[in-house]
Design brief:
The structure holds 2 protein chains of 2 kinds. Chain A is mainly alpha-helical. In chain A, 75% of the residues lie in helices and 0% in strands. Chain B is mainly alpha-helical. Classes of the chains: A mainly alpha, B mainly alpha.
């Protein structure tokens, strides 16, 4: 079981089996989520219909953090035990994470203009997410600035480990500092501070975003594995 | 040093011999670095002039009325200090790597981590100490009072070793980088964000929260002292094995 996630051959077999079910899951959950959001979910009494941006914003933010955490774990393991499979994961996940961080920032500022009155505030949460976006871009750039690809992968893995210091700062910035950004809505699992009619579409959209990410990641990891096998 | 060798050969003690060998190697490395940096002294002068010119360009860009930007001048000085240590990263390991002397250190009896520590100490001595002379002179131009100047020097005393260690990390990462050399400066800048936050925060804060911020900056310094030798040494090893 543990070996499947570090052996390229068995991972490729698993990925080719999982690809179609995850594609179906992502389509179904995305369509049902969007239908529930636009026809059944109520508007907020203060924010009006702009609350519907949250169903895009929050899952994108989850994925931007989770992708970087997975990249950091795989970088540590692949540098420590000399497994090149982690570098394949890094190469596949970095652009996905960058795109979802960009979606998170853009949707947040689209929500912020009518609600807060500005596109951007130099707030702890917003600034640290923007630093995360720049870190993703630097991870991609570092790998491409070496002619020898092996060194670029190793150096960018080192940089991913260094950049993962940012993750707890992003997660807890709303608790540590007095920020304009509101604290997490569904972190308190026993009594979430969000109504059940809004919680259900949010959870469905989270599932949809995660399955889309997994689908793209599996395709690009499989592409990378097959490409490297051909080169050898 | 030769007295130690004679003493060691006289007593014929193995451990003593090893320690003396160790001290001789360290002394030789320190002497070599001092000579190299001393002969390239104009490099340091260039960095210092970059800092002064940056301040002057800022004044030209915003106008000569100093009272308008009294609140932000500490931030400007810290930013320029960061930039001047970010543009000097090429001088860290690149020359040693190109002429092959890092391989000699690698196969000698001391570890590469120790070489990195010595290199960091000497680089801090040569590249950051001149700013302790320049900052008071600049503060006369910019009308910074003596209390703020003392706090600025204190925060720079703690913050400058962190900047040197970030330059060390970035320089060891970019040893074999041949396509995109600017990325090393970006690594220094993006990793130095907490140093800038707390370094400027100490000076602009109210007196009762100076001590906690100082403690946080000291904590960052200790963290970097702990991790920098290992990161730099492993990056140099990655470079050595693939070149």
């Amino acid at each position: 079981m543990f070996k499947t996630f570090f052996n390229p051959g068995s991972f490729e077999k698993l990925a080719s089996k999982l690809n179609l079910p995850i594609l179906i899951l992502s389509c179904v959950s995305m369509i049902t989520g969007l239908i529930i959001i636009f026809y059944f979910s109520p508007d907020d009494y203060q924010q009006g219909s702009t609350v519907k941006i949250m169903y895009i914003h929050v899952p994108a933010a989850y994925i931007s953090l989770m992708t970087f955490a997975i990249m950091a774990i795989y970088s540590i393991i692949s540098l420590a035990f000399k497994m090149p499979f982690g570098f394949i994961i890094n190469k596949a996940l970095a652009p996905i994470g960058a795109v979802f961080t960009l979606i998170c920032i853009v949707s947040g500022s689209l929500w912020g203009k009518p609600m807060w009155g500005t596109w951007w505030v130099w707030d702890a949460r917003l600034t640290s997410v923007f630093i995360l976006f720049i870190t993703y871009i630097l991870v991609i750039l570092i790998r491409q600035s070496f002619t020898n690809i092996e060194i670029g992968e190793k150096i960018s893995a080192v940089f991913v480990i260094l950049g993962s210091i940012n993750l707890p700062i992003i997660k807890f910035s709303v608790d540590w500092w007095n920020t304009l950004h509101q604290p997490a809505s569904i972190s308190k699992l026993s009594s979430p501070s969000i109504d059940i009619t809004m919680l259900i579409p949010l959870l469905i959209m989270t599932v949809a975003f995660m399955s889309i990410t997994l689908n793209i990641a599996l395709i690009s990891i499989r592409y990378e594995i097959i490409n490297r096998k051909r080169q050898i | 040093m030769s007295i130690f060798v004679k003493l060691a050969s006289f007593f014929k003690i193995n451990l003593f011999n090893k320690i003396v060998n160790f001290l001789i190697i360290i002394g030789a490395i320190i002497k070599r670095e001092f000579i190299i940096t001393y002969r390239n002294f104009f490099n340091i002068l260039t960095i210092v002039i970059f800092f002064i010119l940056g301040i002057f360009i800022f004044v030209f860009a915003t106008g000569p009325d100093i009272k308008e930007y009294k609140e932000i001048i500490i931030g400007i000085i810290w930013t320029l200090l960061l930039f001047s240590s970010a543009i000097s990263i090429d001088k860290f390991y690149q020359d040693d790597f190109n002429d092959g002397s890092i391989i000699v250190f690698y196969i000698s009896s001391i570890s590469l981590e120790f070489y990195v520590i010595i290199k960091i100490i000497i680089s801090w001595f040569f590249w950051q100490l001149p700013f302790f002379i320049v900052i008071p002179i600049i503060s006369l131009f910019l009308d910074i009072n003596i209390i703020k100047l003392k706090l600025l020097l204190l925060s720079f005393l703690i913050g400058s070793p962190i900047l040197t260690m970030l330059s060390s990390i970035s320089s060891s990462m970019n040893l074999l980088n041949d396509k995109n050399t600017v990325i090393g400066n970006l690594i220094v800048i993006i990793l130095s964000i907490p140093v800038i936050i707390f370094g400027v925060g100490i000076i602009n804060a109210s007196p009762e929260i100076i001590n906690p911020q100082l403690n946080i900056l000291l904590g960052i310094l200790l963290l970097f002292i702990a991790i920098t030798p290992w990161i730099s040494a492993s990056c140099i090893k990655i470079g050595l094995r693939n070149s």
